[in-house]
Amino acid sequence: MSKENNLLFIPLGGCSEIGMNMYVYGYDDGNNIDYILVDAGVTFPNPEYNPGVDLIMPDTSFVEDNLSKFKAIFITHAHEDHIGSLTHLFEYIEAPIYCGKFTSLIAKSKIDKGGGNSNLVKIAPHYPKFIKVGSFKVGFVNISHSIPEASGLIIETPCSRVFHSGDFKIDYSPVLGKPFNKKILSEIGKKGINTLVCDSTNVFNDHHGRSESNLFDNFVNLFKKVKGIVVATTFASNLARLKTLASAADRTGRSLVVLGRAMNNMINYGKESGILKDFPDILSPRDAKLVPKNHLLVLASGSQGEPRAASAQLARESYMGFTIGKNDVFLFSSKTIPGNEIRVSYIVDQLERRGVEVIEDKNGLYHVSGHANKPDLNIFHSLISPDLIVPMHGEYRHLKEHERIAKQSGIQTLLVENGDVAQISNSSNAAVIDKVDSGRIFLDGSVLIDEQEGIISERKKLMYNGLLNVSILVNEIKPYFNFEMDLIGISATVDFKKEILIHLENELNYSIGNNKPKKLHNIESYYLEAEVRRILNKFLKSEIGKKPHISICIHRMDII
């Protein structure tokens, strides 16, 4: 790494995907180096590629190797892709964790769940106040997004000044939180920003983003028309959306019930932090069942098709005594995250079978994004007026497109991917200068496993090709082989199983030499196992077109 006075940017997650955000900033004065961590997120697995995995997190080996140099963690907001790995990865860190009041409640809950020290969580003051840690001064700047208290960060060091956007949108009339403030951002820009590290999520959307407040009238008009229950699902963390839906229900004479632990928890956090005020009364599920169908709004968790969430259970049968059918409406007030399409489609299909009218927001009436579209990014670039832009929070194609539009405005850019060590002190020397270990950690049940361990690839082979268990008794007294075989997840009849056993026995007798006692006694188990595996792989590939995972157990009866 550079030995000169320098500011380093090291993404461990978020610069090769949307989600799993984790960014390291380092100040190197030539003798010592201080680090801070911005965000600690997760991403969600695709069952096709990561079967059985519960969550995916960045590889934090770089953090673990430099623990004493990390001065603090800063959390920009409480979305899972920015805060989710606090539960699982940070029981060993003793640096303070700074965030907003609402975010702090969620952070403490996650750290307690993981067995860490939640007393490390500190409520951050807002800009123009700064937090000083090591060589860094960090200011939290209010910024609009689809969750309360989202913040951008001003990061100051002796050699450079950075604005880390976090997730943001331009919303001048959000339902919750402070509006997008052009004046403050312009003032920050005028004081000089060397580098803008910026959200790239919606870079391909050519239209200006819309405000959360635009949705209220659309919900009111819909609720008035529905003759039965309205069930609405959205992201549990989108408290502004929950309030808009609840307020529209109140306006149209519908009582409110909330189904799903995650959604109820978020509402409670919102009330406890003082952010969620004047929220309509919520009925208990028992009391709500006494309300006529046409006077009820159900807010249900599980907008991404989570199998055990309230939405999925309502679609399959019932949940907490609630059933839905003809004359009822199920509203998706959310966008389906890439990778979740199959699960969401299954729920839609089940609802349609029950006679429920399903409304997916394909025309923009019932959902607005929490991220800046391309025209909004241009406005943001202009306000911050940086010398250099580093795109983040996107797949490679998003980063490249963000780079392209920044260059169109005459702003220098640097494309950085996960694991890159970039020097970003100023635009003249900006470059990727090194690499650190990066990758993914899987939460598999309650165990953390490295993606390089091969466990998931073995599981995928089992999923696609099945399992063949072979037990071999080598009797060196008679002599003979005896085989037992179990086929799991393999298309095979009883006759085919017998055919496999006959073929295996014939091939082994031929290769080893017709079961001569000396041969059986001298043959090594590893050689026998390799021969069995070779014979079975060749035969099964020829007969059924697959190579199952083969598990072999050898038992010997030795000559006494």
Descriptive notes:
The model has no long low-confidence stretch (mean pLDDT 91). The strands form five sheets. The protein has an eight-stranded mixed beta sheet. The chain contains 17 helices and 26 strands. Helix 5 crosses helix 12, helix 6 packs across helix 7 (239-251) and helix 15 packs across helix 17 (525-544). With 560 residues, it is α/β, with parallel strands linked by helices. It has three domains: 6-207 and 369-453, 4-Layer Sandwich (Metallo-beta-lactamase, Chain A), CATH 3.60.15.10; 212-360, Metallo-hydrolase/oxidoreductase (Rossmann fold); 466-557, Ubiquitin-like (UB roll).
Which features characterize this protein?
560 residues; Ubiquitin-like (UB roll); 3 domains; Metallo-beta-lactamase, Chain A; alpha/beta; 17 helices; eight-stranded mixed β-sheet; globular; Rossmann fold
Highest CATH level, the class of the largest domain = Alpha Beta
The fourth-level CATH homologous superfamily of the largest domain is Ribonuclease Z/Hydroxyacylglutathione hydrolase-like
Structural class: alpha/beta
Q: Mean pLDDT, rounded to whole units? A: 91
Low-confidence stretches: none
Strand order of the largest sheet: 7-6-5-3-2-1-20-21
Rg of Cα set: 29 Å
Percent helix, as a range, is 25-40%
Tally of structural domains: 3
N-to-C CA distance: 66 Å
Q: Biggest β-sheet: count, sense, barrel?
A: 8 strands, mixed
What does this entry show, briefly?
The protein is of the alpha/beta class and 560 residues long. The protein has 17 helices and 26 strands.
